[in-house]
TrEMBL record:
Pfam families registered for this protein in UniProt: Porin_O_P
Coiled coil: none
Keyword Transmembrane: no
InterPro entries found in the cross-reference section: Porin_dom_sf (IPR023614), Porin_O/P (IPR010870)
Organism: Lysobacter auxotrophicus
Domain of life: Bacteria
Keywords: Signal
Protein name according to UniProt: Porin
Signal peptide region: 1-23
Amino acid sequence: MKLSRSTLSVALLAALVAPAAHAEIALDVIGNSEVSFEGLVQADYNYFDSDFTDLNVGGDQLDGRDSDNELRRAELVLKGKGPGNFEWVVGYDAKADKWLDVNAKYKIGGNSNHFFQLGQFKQPNSLEELSSTKNNDFISKAMVTNTYGVARRLGAQYGIGDNNWSLTTSFFTRELTEHPAPTPHGPGWGVRGTFAPINESGNIVHLGLSYVNYDSFQDTVRIRTRPQADLAGTRLVDSGNMTNVDRQATIGGEAMWITGPFKLQSEYMQSTVERYDNGNPRQSKDFDSSSWYVSGLWNITGETWGYKGGVPTTGLPDEPASGMWQLGARFDSIDLDDGVIIPAANPTAAAAVDGVLGGQMDSWTVGVNWYWRSNFKFMLNYVMVDSSRFYARTPATGLVDPADQGQLVNRKVDDNPNVIEARVQFYW
């Protein structure tokens, strides 16, 4: 669904004349449950300065233009508190046509840090993924989050902790919304532990570890990521379809430091795709890959962050009329190379690969955010990408993207595009 100029104008006009209300809209009390309504609307624009590969060709973007715009999210959420210690939520994204959080939670002893949850919810394996989408520091989430984060899945979850520590374990299966293979929707389990040795107003140190292990869907896994641009149709690094897959296991580490108006945050994940023997040694080796980022954010206007349930929380601007201004920078890196090149006997022929050479990519993102009043956010990012990947080259067809196991390669291509990104957001 593309966002036309007229649709964008109407959406912005509706947002500007809407009444300001930071909290959710209270609807009614039904069956001793206080029902409220929340929403999130995001519209994105990307301008692509492509290098080797046209970033706007592939997937749903087939026009090859230098820019693209889209209604990114249109989330509608009903929430309920009660009866008693129960809470429930039903969320739906009208843009993506998929279910969001759909679950019920029971707070044991009335303690929000000690609970049992059943339904569809985000899995416990990523600080950025578990943080609120409307308060993301950058327009595109980090590569490690987009690549290895296990988001909403059906399952059961138990959590225990207090203001300084938490331990959460989850057993899950597929999503409510069906997706085609090879998306990672097999059953599995996960666990995440956090510890905040310092947790004071404007002074927070957070540490965390996570682990998820799940079955592959139809024995196939494909690991790839966009160049830090959500509207790009091209992935510059791509493992290709790995078949004969048993399970995928990902371990992650996270750290965050908040001091006054500054926030420093980092995550690292290493993932192993476990494969079974199908008689072909090149297609039976386990595949290891990794990704990480480090980011810094400065609230120019002086606000700080809160901390709840092992994730940061973003408050309102101190001066709603002028808003809260943020400056940020992030460095990302991902490595999908786990193989060696076997030289060809004939110098004019392509070499073979033992394993997988999906490529490597680094990126810098710098950005500015403006939270205006209680319901609006405007974001502007500039992304600089540095990637490299092996391709095959034949006299007849030129460069060929292998994107499969046992591929032939004889040329490493550097691809270093830049992207300008903008987002308009309205939430209540």
